[in-house]
TrEMBL record:
InterPro entries the record matches: Nuclease_put_TT1808, Restrct_endonuc-II-like, Uma2
Keyword Nucleotide-binding: no
Origin organism lineage: Bacteria, Bacillati, Actinomycetota, Actinomycetes, Kitasatosporales
Organism domain of life: Bacteria
Organism name: Streptomyces hebeiensis
Keyword Nuclease recorded: yes
Gene3D superfamilies: tt1808, chain A
GO molecular function annotations of the record: endonuclease activity
CDD domains: DUF820-like (cd06260)
Entry keywords, A to Z: Endonuclease, Hydrolase, Nuclease
Any Pfam family matching the protein: Uma2
Residues in Putative restriction endonuclease domain copies: 15-178
Name of this chain's protein: Uma2 family endonuclease
């Protein structure tokens, strides 16, 4: 049985599967709630592209708009970038099992901060995703979370490393140091705190 097979099949999951998302929007299933948001802005997309370009494609799949399945969760988040070793998830399909993923990236927007720093943190930790990178263009920082532990909503990452834009972020799990010097910024909003 795979992690995709272990997910609960609920009315929300079935509704999400059949959802017709309007062009220019994206939808995610987050702990039983269907969350729809407008597409990202150019600053967001350029940050994702800059990160993707630095990850060697000969060893890693670097996938955007890829849903992942969290075992034992009614969640199908769509991180801004999913990184997994080539060959870790072969064949067709909309979902990649979280245990196959090496790193997920979320770029914080004005409306996603609480989800990115809170709910998604516990979801990715519950799915045992080894590394979760949050890039916040409003706070001009990168937060790398590693060593997931716990179950369900109480799951969390045990190690947190914060790096300011302009400094490099060691992504040892990928064998690179991420150059953040080209990351663009957005006007600051109130600081969001991880639990």
């Amino acid at each position: 049985m795979t992690a995709v097979d272990e997910r609960p099949i609920t009315r929300a999951a079935k509704t999400f599967e059949d959802l017709d998302v309007p062009e220019g929007f994206k939808a995610e299933l987050l702990r039983g709630d269907i969350v729809m948001m407008a597409g990202p802005d150019r600053v967001h997309n350029r940050i994702v592209q800059t990160v993707q370009d630095q990850i060697p494609h000969d060893r890693w799949d670097r996938l955007q708009t890829q849903d992942i399945a969290i075992p034992n969760e009614e969640s199908e988040p769509q991180p801004d970038l999913v990184v997994l070793e080539r060959g870790a998830a072969e064949g067709p399909g909309r979902l990649i099992p979280a245990p196959a993923v090496t790193l997920v990236l979320e770029v914080v927007s004005r409306t996603s901060g609480d989800r990115d720093y809170g709910e998604k943190c516990s979801m990715y930790a519950a799915g045992r995703v080894p590394a979760y990178l949050i890039i916040d263009p409003m706070e001009q920082l990168c937060m790398l979370l590693t060593e997931p532990a716990g179950e369900g909503e109480s799951a969390d990452y045990q190690v947190e490393r914060i790096t300011d834009f302009g400094d490099s972020v060691p992504l040892d799990m990928l064998g690179i140091k991420l150059d953040t010097s080209e990351f663009e910024t957005l006007p600051a909003v109130r600081r969001r705190r991880r639990r």
